[in-house]
């Protein structure tokens, strides 16, 4: 809940500040802020709760048996509560005009926004799966990798769909501000993209062995070849 709260407070807050104070933050500043807050909260809460800020990620981890199902409702409830509280804080702190709405709405067609959300959510989950669930990855860099992915996605898809990637990120502001235009996109898109990203990474994950075992005989392909196995057994 705390992680999602500050995700909304900082990430959505910078959108409000940029509009209300004459564009002082700028679009690149918004992108960097989103990446930074995700990175900071991963390093702050990852060892406590696993840094689950996104219901779609939590659900995908459960589907692929990386997270216990019985904890899913509690985590999703906490994520939505954090988003609602963060959005309410911004509403009370600032005079949020319609132009300063800090939720996500399609800038053009719903199809374009949906496609953008699916693609960037796929990338996000693919990176998360690689750095957080594969023991061959350098786990200490997970926060940087995920934060940079968020920043990159906001740069690319921010002007198109708002670059939500997270149903909680869109639901909280929508409920607090009463703006539901295209909200389904930000539930369906991230769910489809994140599920697909997790599925594809698990599809190409060829082993659970650590890197030192894979490279003991030069390379994975070499160590797996029948010829190499035969020569090894004879020696």
From TrEMBL:
Origin: domain of life: Eukaryota
Subcellular localization, as worded in the UniProt entry: Membrane
Name of a matching Pfam family: MIP
UniProt KW Transmembrane keyword: yes
Taxonomic source organism: Brassica cretica (Mustard)
InterPro entries attached to this UniProt entry: Aquaporin-like, Aquaporin_transptr, MIP, MIP_CS
Name of the featured protein: Aquaporin
Keywords: Membrane, Transmembrane, Transmembrane helix, Transport
Membrane topology: Multi-pass membrane protein
Transmembrane intervals: 5-21, 27-46, 67-90, 110-129, 141-163, 183-204
Gene Ontology molecular function: any one: channel activity
SUPFAM superfamilies per the UniProt record, alphabetical: Aquaporin-like
PROSITE patterns with a match to the protein in the record: MIP
Protein family per UniProt: Belongs to the MIP/aquaporin (TC 1.A.8) family.
Predominant place of localization: membrane
GO cellular component, one term: membrane
């Amino acid at each position: 809940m705390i992680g999602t709260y500050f995700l909304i407070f900082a990430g959505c807050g910078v959108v409000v500040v940029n509009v209300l104070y004459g564009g002082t933050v700028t679009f690149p500043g918004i992108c960097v802020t989103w990446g930074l807050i995700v990175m900071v909260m991963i390093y702050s809460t990852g060892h406590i709760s696993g840094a689950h800020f996104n219901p779609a990620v939590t659900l995908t981890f459960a589907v692929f048996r990386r997270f216990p199902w019985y904890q899913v409702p509690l985590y999703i409830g906490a994520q939505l509560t954090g988003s609602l509280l963060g959005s309410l804080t911004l509403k009370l702190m600032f005079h949020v005009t319609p132009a300063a709405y800090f939720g996500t709405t399609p800038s053009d067609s719903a199809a374009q926004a949906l496609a953008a959300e699916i693609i960037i959510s796929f990338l996000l989950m693919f990176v998360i799966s690689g750095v957080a669930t594969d023991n061959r990855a350098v786990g200490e860099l997970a926060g940087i990798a995920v934060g940079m992915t968020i920043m990159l996605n906001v740069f690319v898809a921010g002007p198109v769909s708002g670059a939500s990637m997270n149903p909680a990120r869109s639901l909280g502001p929508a409920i607090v501000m009463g703006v539901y235009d295209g909200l389904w996109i930000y539930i369906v898109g991230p769910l489809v993209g994140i599920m697909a990203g997790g599925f594809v990474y698990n599809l190409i994950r060829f082993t659970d062995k650590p890197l030192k075992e894979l490279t003991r005989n030069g390379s994975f392909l070499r160590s797996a070849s029948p010829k190499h196995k035969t020569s090894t057994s004879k020696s």
